Batch of 3 targets.
Target 1
Amino acid sequence: MVTKGKQPSSARGTRTSGGSARNTSQRAASQRPAARSGSQRNGRRRPSAAVYRRRRLVVFISLLIVLGLVTAGAVAIASSLTGKAGPATQATNSPQPQDSQTAAPGASGTASPSAKATPVCDLNLVTVAASTDAGSYAAGKNPVLGMKVTNGGSTPCQVNVGTSQMEFQVTSGADRIFSSRDCQATSEDLVKTILPGKSETANFVWQRNRTTEGCSVVNAKPGAGTYVFTASLGNKVSPKAVFQLR
């Protein structure tokens, strides 16, 4: 009977002890959340690396957009300025009337500015000279009259040296003695290219006769004396070449 009465007492003590342990664990569990919430309020959480990368990307894209807008505005301003300056530039580059009037013969009016102009012969530098094969001729000796056409320029020249352009004339004072054109049967053109510093020559044997315009018959013969020979090519006349007939 005594043994049975003690066992329940021990069992109750054990339950009391167990209840005390449960109360202790509950109090500890109730205190832990309070501790965590306190640490969250006192300490600031640091952003992660991914957040930093996103922020940098947003800033970079914003800079690109701003630069694009600035560039587009500059291009628009430059385009408007260029459009306003266009007519003035065209007027400056347009050819002037005096340029077309003074253009060198043979130059193309549509040639580009960068194209090199073809050198043009200066006909003013083409000269004509007269000569004889001797200074004095005995009776019965016919003088050989010579014409020499020389290009004194620095570029080749095309010159008409045909009989249509040349004339051999002999005078004595004011007396017109002879002209190769008076009795010329045919008149022909002969264009030759004369290089710089080069010459073309033509010779004519004078029969010591007189001629008149229209090739009328003249019976008189030139006598002994001093004569002057001049050669002509177009509108160019040579200096005088003096010779004697005996």
Target 2
Amino acid sequence: MKSLFLSLFFLLAVLSVQGQSLTDLRAKKVNTTQVIQYTSTLLQEAQKNEKATLSKLQLLNSQIQNRNQLIQSINDEINVFERYIDENTQVSELLKSDLEVLKKEYASMIRFAQKNKNSYDMLIFLLSSENLNQAYKRMLYLRQYAKYRKSQAEVIQSISSLLDQKVAELEEQKQEKARLLASKNQEARQLVGEKNQQSRQVQSLQQQQRDLRKKLREQQQEQEKLDREIERLLAEEAKKARETGEFEMTPEQKLLAADFENNRGRIPWPVERGVITERFGVHTHPVLKNIQVKSNGIEITTQAGSEVRAVFDGQVSRVFAISGGNMAVIIRHGSFLSVYSNLKEVNVVAGQQVKTKQRIGAIFSDENKTALKFQVWRENEKMNPEDWITK
């Protein structure tokens, strides 16, 4: 009996941990599904323009990446259910085995009780004692024996109930696993269709290499202008600090920087809804062969008319226009800077204090897409915005 309860305790503890893991997996799966649904909406809008565009391909690439993540999440969930089923099976087998033992023991006790149920026999059992002390011990034994019979019956009933519960749980988990497998197969079919569409887009875009190279040069020039503006801002602030002797941040600025740092991975997105279609760092161009693309931030594609909002409390350091790149805003958060570019309009001014999620402007849209370019800097060090915004 002791081994039974120790085994049950261990297995149920494991299942409890898996339950927590399952909750996390399901939350991740729901989030990925929502991103896929939103990306599908953006793709439907993009399909109105029949011409193959880089923005369509970027959306498809993002969709495929998220679809793969979703399939992996489903796989992880299936694995959890498989372990859950295996361990529940072990519990059930253990319960069945111990239940059989208990029933045999209980049957033996009942047979013994039937043979000795006569009150006269019990009296003879007591009177045949060699002395009063032995008679007293025999009386205690009879009482304990009766009590044990009762407790044994209760244990059998409890284990039988628990066994029924485990059998029902097993059936539910098997059904859930079957549903997950069906869902995985459906997502896999969707993935094949998206990859075929991706291949067609790439083939079509490869015929537009001259235009793509021109567009890439324009983007690089815009990024260089933005970088120079940020560097000029930092240089101006450093010069001002030297002239005034204020090399240290104020206590308020230090507190703001610490708050920003402590919220790493939890800072809200600069748009209410969007899909990351270009990531931070150096990566291969999606169409042009042997071409590396460098990005100092991320590009977030969203719906036309979407607004831009500050990702954290801070002060607007600069509002400026980039030739061929629309408007840009830089907000300082202590020693950190957040940069928002490709805006068609801005409704904040330099020196203005802003709050988290406060509207600062609207994103520029053309016939192909609506995309915000977003950067995070720690003074003159470029940071990956995906490390800071909420996952």
Target 3
Amino acid sequence: MTQLEQLLEENKKDVINNQFETMMKVNLDLNWKINKGMENTGAKTPFDLLKSFQKYNIKPILPLINQDVLLLAGENDQYVPSTRLPEIADGLINAGQVKKVLFDKASGGDQHCQAGRRELGFEEIKKFLA
């Protein structure tokens, strides 16, 4: 368990909010992500946002998926680490075909949702559905 997970489990709201507010002052990317997350979820504080994230966990339902699955990822995705690709694929124990595509920098599809080269993702989806 990470220190952050422990603080969340212990409901250390003030500690988490203070740490995030300090980090957000010097990290524009983190500031944007936390504020966008709060805007999207209705959370009022970083602590509330992180607590709301705990409701979303795909691991328990991965074994229930029994159809073919296409997983697309970018190696430099700024929101979802590419390490999630094998982690998710490994949990799809009852799925039919599991096709994984990791777009690299050379392809231009290495960013979140293949931003800048969205046609790469669309082509993979079309091939998968054909």
